[in-house]
Structure formats: C-alpha cells, structure tokens
Design goal:
single chain, Alpha-Beta Plaits, five-stranded mixed beta sheet
Length: 304
C-alpha cells in the first residue's frame, strides 16, 4: 500500500499491516516533537550520522531492527542494523527536491498507529537531512575538477592520507600512478585550448574505463592525472599502469579529439612504503614519470 502523508513523505509497505490492536509502547520522553527532533539532529552535517542519530532517538517510540537509505543523486547508500522480514519505505522530498528513500526494517509487522506516529517524527528529519546533503554536495564540489568531473588535487591529498593510514594498519599495498600527457603544449598551441580541453575530457573517460571501480582517478593539474589504487604488489601495479598507457594510446575518442596529433602518456608508479607520507609517495611517482619524459616518453616506469 502507499499513501501521500504530506508533500515531503511518500510511504510504501512490504509485508502489510498488523491487524492486532495492542496499545503502542509507552513513549515517555522518547516521543519528541518534530521541532525537538530537528534540534537533536542539527549537531552534525554528516548524512549517515544524521540518519543514525534519528534511528536511535526514535527507537523507543518506533522499535525497529535497522534501516537503509538510498539517494541516487548524492551516490549515497547507507545501512545500519540488521535485515528483517518486514519493511516500510519513505520517499522523502522537500518542495520537489529529492531527499532519498529511507527504509525501516523489523521482524514483526508494522501497525497503522505506529506508522502515523513515525510519519510525524519524520517531519523533524527533513530539514537536518537536507542541510547535511547540501553540505556534502558543497564538499564534493570543492574536491571535484570542474572540467573533467573527477577528483582534484585537494581530494587526492585527503584520500591519499586515508589510504596510507589503512596500509600502515595492515591493509593492502597502495600504488600511486602519476600520468602526464606527452607534448600536450603542442596540442594547445596547434589546435587551441578548446581542443585541449576536449582531449582532457576524452582522456578522463579513457582512464575511468581502464581502471577498476575501486581505483580512484584524479586530475592533479594541467595535463597531469593521478590514479590511486590498491594492488597485490609491484608487478600488479606495473601491469595496471601499462594497461592504462595502452588504453590512452589506442582510445579512438582520445585520438579523434586532437586531429593530426598522436596523444600518448608517460606514467610513473610508486608503491607505498612504511612511514610514507602523501608527499613522499607522490614525489617518487612524479620523479619516475619525469624519468620517462627524459628517456623517450609513452612508457611506464616503476620507482625503485
């Protein structure tokens, strides 16, 4: 079943409603007004933290085993608790702005009075969740290269620190690939900066297609790109770099974007060492890339 509760909440149920008529649990101080709930949730601008806190605050008033949250536009998928047989899902929005789908789970069927009470409490979630989503959107924009749509150097600095910390805790080896397009200045000087931008976009698409979903692609500036990945070892990193180099050279979209030019890339590779910092790891990969530039271009070199 489904019904419109307000202009901001659309409900759907899986498993139906309970026909039992037992009274609701005693709510006491657990039953907060929407305004009180909104105040409770305004202590963070992290969407996952907002939803987790909402789940905990309403637990006594609306017992549930867990929840999931999906927002395709924000690329968010969040789940807490455990999967259970019955669910109720709410599509949240504010003045036509999609705020995602929130799904509550539990082992026994939901009852209409409980759902009506939940829907009242959900109105206290709308604005804190929207504020958290807007903040996340702003953070993502600050870490995104506006031309190519991939991560920028600011994002690289943050994510590289995170990956190195994971490696030092015993995680998988981390490899950093620094890729620089060969003779790119000649493309700009001969064909113009508009064509140069088209080449950068085509190369970006090529890099995304040639890497795994778990790999991270960055434009660190100008015609330089960086790929951050977890690998099995040096040979694995070298193979990945060679695959990327070949993909750039053989990509029809890349070559067609710069008529009369042969677009290739020089790639330097460095594997993380114990006590590496973001700077030391990047510098080794960057030095390997420049060594390729000095000795012929369009090759891969793994730093010692």
């Amino acid at each position: 079943m489904s019904q419109i509760y307000s202009d901001s909440i659309l409900r759907s149920l899986s498993g139906g409603l309970s026909g039992q008529s037992q009274p609701l649990p005693e709510l006491g101080n657990a039953s907060l007004s929407p305004a009180e709930l909104a105040f409770e949730l305004q202590t963070t601008l992290n969407p996952e933290a907002v939803l987790g806190r909402f789940s905990r605050v309403i637990q006594l008033a609306f017992p549930h085993d867990g929840f999931t949250y999906d927002h395709a536009g924000a690329k968010l998928q969040i789940s807490q608790g455990r999967v259970s047989l019955h669910s109720c899902t709410y599509s949240l929005s504010l003045k036509g702005e999609d705020l995602g789908d929130l799904r509550f789970l539990r082992g026994r069927k939901f009852r209409e009075p409980e759902l009506a009470h939940l829907e009242t409490m959900l109105t206290g979630l709308i604005y804190p969740l929207r504020n958290a989503l807007l903040y996340q959107q702003a953070v993502q924009a600050s870490q995104t290269d506006p031309l190519t749509g991939v991560h920028n150097r600011k994002a690289l600095d943050q994510l590289l620190k995170r990956e190195l910390a994971s490696f030092e805790r015993g995680g998988e080896p981390v490899a950093l690939l620094v890729l620089d397009l060969d003779h790119f200045k000649r493309v700009n000087d001969t064909l113009g900066h508009t064509v140069g931008d088209r080449v950068l976009k085509a190369v970006t698409s090529c890099l995304v297609e040639a890497t795994r979903a778990s790999d991270m692609v960055f434009r660190s500036g100008g015609e330089e790109f960086v790929v951050l990945m977890r690998v099995a070892g040096p040979e694995d990193a070298a193979r990945a770099a060679e695959r990327i180099r070949t993909a750039v050279e053989q990509c029809a979209a890349v070559q067609d974007s710069a008529p009369g030019q042969h677009v290739t890339a020089s790639i330097g590779v460095a594997l993380a060492r114990w006590r590496d910092t973001a700077v030391t790891l990047f510098d080794r990969a960057d030095a390997a890339m420049y060594e390729v530039k000095r000795t012929g271009r369009n090759r891969v070199k793994v730093a010692d």
